[in-house]
Amino acid sequence: MKKNFKIISLSILILIQLIIYQYLIRVESSILGWEITNLYFVIIITFSLTLKALLKTISKQYPKHILGVYFIIAFIVIVLIYRTIGIYVTSIFIEGTTFKFSVVALVSMTLYYYIQKAKSGEKIYLRPIAGLKAIEEAVGRATEMGKSVLFVPGISDLDQVETVSGLILLGHVAETTAKYEAGLNVPVSKSIVMEAARETCRESYLRAGRPDLYYDDMVHYITDDQFAYAAGVNGIMVREKPAACFYLGKFYAESLLLAETGNSIGAIQIAGTGSPSQIPFFVTACDYTLIGEEFFTASAYLSKKPELLGSIKGQDIVKGLVMAAMIFTLILNGFFQAGWVGFDIVTLFEN
Amino acid sequence: MSAEIFGSWIVVFLTLCIFSYLFDDNPFYKAAEHIFIGVSAGYWAVIAFWQQIQPNLFGRLWPKLEDVGEGSVLQSAWYSIYKVLNFISTGFGILDRSIFPEGGIKGYDEIRLMYLIPFILGTFMLLRLVPKVGWLARWAIAYIVGMTAGLRFYSFLNSDILIQIKASTIDFSSDWGTIINGLIVFIGTMTGLIYFFFSKEHKGSFGTLSKIGIYFLMIKFGASFGFAVMGRISLLIGRINQLKDYSTAEFNYATPIISIFIIICLAIWSFMDGGNKNESTA
Amino acid sequence: METLKNIFIKLGSMDRRIIFLLVGLSVLFPLLKPDWFTLPIRPKQHSQIVFDEINKLEAGSKVLLSFEYGPSTKPEIHPMTIALLRHMFVKDIKVYAVALWPDGNFMSMIAFDEVAVEYNKKIGIDYVNLGYKPGGEAVIKGIASDIRTLYTVDLNGTSLDEIPMMQNMNNVEDFDFVFSLSAGTPGSKEWVQYATDPKGIAMSTGCTSIQVTDIVPYVENGQIRGILAGMPGAAEYEELVKTELTSRGLVIKSGEATSMMSAQSMAHVVIVLLIIFGNISYYLTRNNKRKGRK
Amino acid sequence: MFLKRHVPLFIVVIIGLLTLFGNFIDNDEVKNFVDNDATQWFDIIASFAIFLGSLNMLKLQILKIIRKHKNWQYSILAVLGFAVAIFAGFFYRGANYIVVSNVNEINLLPIAELLTDELHLENQNTVISNISDAKDGYEIPKIFMTQSGAEAFMEKLDKFDVNMEIKSKKWGIHLQAKGSLFSWIFFNIFTPLSSTMFALLAFFVASASYRAFRIRNFEATLLLVSGIILMLGRVPIGELIPWWVVAILIVFGVGAISAPWIKDKKIFFGLVVGGIVLFLSVGFSMGWNQSPPQILLIPVIQDWIFDYPTTAGSRALMIGIALGIVATSFRIIVGIERSFLGE
Asked: The pTM is what?
């Protein structure tokens, strides 16, 4: 941790200078007879010196990340200029959303930046996710027992991102079932999901070199209603007894109906969803569960494509930014409550 | 009032068919399941048409305008298409007018030609039935997924990240209890987020932080599970309450009679085919 | 001691159906014999906040009631609707009902038929039912921006201009309070995201208990004022409304949720006991295995 | 090739950027599209697509009947159910009602009496006031499913020589009219089935918690402890659990956590028993029986768990999921993720 001590102390130094600068503007007109205006030069000089020292230490200790740091600082400078001088561009923007726009821009640029870095060949380490290794094993088990694989893409339509992620994962599962020549059964609850799932499966069977195994009714519609769909899928499970069940998509209350029935027929169950209220049921009733964000990154994990792996790295960096923002907001809000800082950061988040 | 009793008997019968699934998969459950699939598919198809396509699409393309008057040539040409559609929909004039009422559909007050686009994209979806032209449905899927990505990007970024950052601030002026609890929530959120780091090995101090994070997540899962138990039980209570109401003389003792009938049949069936327990279907 | 141990071990791997039977009986008995199992109901903080918010509204204030639940979640949410309507009608609050779910319509009709007659409230003057509009978030956004583009007629076809209480009601800002009775999406979360937060309108919600843990962050930071959590929430609100009404000398039929709470408690106790037995037997089998290995 | 592959991708990128930046661009056209029309278009396309799904389901069920696969008899029920729902929706409204007009003063009261007891309405004077101020005919608030049902009711009113006329609700409104065939199907077939399937969850929640809440490792124990405390705390029974039971459980909990560090069994048991005795003696001496401290009451612990650690867990989960959605949406808009287009 000693390495980072220098960086942390320098950034705290910068923070303190910012607060002093803020304090000077608001409170004092002159100190010890010095006019405030020439105090600005002193602060700007010390500020830029500490900033340069900070950048030098970071580039020495984390050479790989220096590009990222320059890029984020450049972004902050642009936003500062943009807010202070108020370039003409503001007129087409709705008043008051400039902060939200800059957050969207920052997140997009960070993601794009790390995707480009991954494309240009940088190796990216990804921690293992238990559920994903089990997919191959589950399909293998289904082939041995001569049973089919059941894939449930959730009950929402394509207007939910979880359903899109579920379909992308269906592509990978279909590729494995094609390779192992296992039967694949995809009951769906929405017609548009049926069409998109057929596109994905046809593509995967083609890519696995077994287009002969693909038939359209592998993906079949049951009904639009939540519980009639659950009853139908329960019926399929109890009568056809698939060896492996995948629940990947957006689920509501019927998640436990499916998971408990799957458990009663002794199938391996791998679940993944972005609906926070259903994760507890999957955690208790299924063998492997992709919790929240793991579900969304699973498709990138399996694809092994550099740009997708890069976007996971970008996602982590944005998470780091969010954590830093939380700490920063907490401290600055604390200062604001104590009256040391004039600007209440919380108003920034009002929509 | 026999319709009332007939209705209550159907309700009790279907409820007990679904409950029979708890015992095992049996003909009663299979029957109830298939009825449910058929009726609900039809129900949602009807709701989709009468509450989406007719009022929102046709209603916007051919609204019932007050000052119909002579209107522009274009407008009368447009409404002649409406008459043709009505002619087709009433089976060349045999059935009574239902989908396209006289002079346009009440609801909106001006024609919105922009709604031709979803009309076309919708027909592209239906073209999926024609194999040669089936790929056109991709344009409709492309519109939907594009819209989803755009809408959800901003709404989740705004409501589930920015507003949560704002919410994590602590009111330091309040009493010590709230401050400590606020810090617990803050630490829990930070460690929870650390658990979701993918591109960093969970080793050393980073590993212990992520372990604390998963503990907070597990407490949350336990809590929402405990909560769910309560919600589910109240739904079961609602069902059994209704069965109790229907067991009175007023409904000719519907619940007792039907439940005895089902239990007897289940006993016979499980006794008869006790042998081939694991019949696998073709 | 040995026999006791393997009784417990056998308890650890009971067949599912025995558990189903136990849960079924634990719910059936309290319902058949309610007077054996009466238990005190202590209103909790979240329900109290909701009660105070509604109690604060004076006569004639306008409340938008949004029905987002169906028959399958009726046992949890409907008692809340009944208690809420009684509370508002006693205080002569004007109730505007909308439904975001298709079967929300039927729920609102049943609720109004039952309660409006009790306090002989007239449709169009004391309450209006605008009915179901498909589109989920689009409907909420429509109500937030301009209600008249969305609703031209109410549920049974009378146009809005003829309804006295709809005069100069143009968007969500004309309402004093929004109450979302929600069992899923679209529900309270969408009301916060698209209507009450951006426009700054006071709002609270009654929802199924499974949803409570997702809505709590909004309640914590004040975007939603209090929450009625599942059937206990309904029972607590019924209790609060009963004390309020009896203090005003009005008689009130006992609420549905209160009577079902005893069945709820019994079922919970049975499930907790099952979990404890499961763990004892798990602990014993693990020891045996460990002893076996040693 | 261009039409099949590049145009769909082009649509995704354009619509994605439009709906994303629609929240910032300040002109009404775009703002109106993003707020109302975008999701409305989706609903319309989805409603078109439903027919595709129903056709596919019907095809499979009918194939099953023709080829006599196993359980083919039940497919007949599915096809019949679908046909009945479509018939009630498109071909037969079954929502007739009677309109009574120009009722003179004399028989206003007897008609109102007849209506109140026939349709067991609550009170009579609302009926009277509705009839009197109904300008163009008073609609009797009862929907008759069949024409004959309406005529039978009219005979009862014949003796008052008021002219009556049978009308039926407009198409589309007949879905919501509480007496039509469609609403009969909704209340007597659709609702019991869907709420009973939902109620099955109560049994499955019990069996899942029985099987999964086992103290396999520390995380599973946390899941178990917070689950049980939540279950007991939210229900009146939770209040009846005395404070000393909670005290003993807390000592057990502390003992379980510290077990790995204390090797010797005897000291460990000594400590646990000593802890309990100490806790109870302090309790009784401080008179905790009358007013137990808040910390030792299950509902209070449950409130604390529910308000703070759960909120922290939910917030971390929410931010994680939101980030996942943002990254996935970004990959879709930039065009990296396109397997759903089957390229």
From this structure: 0.82
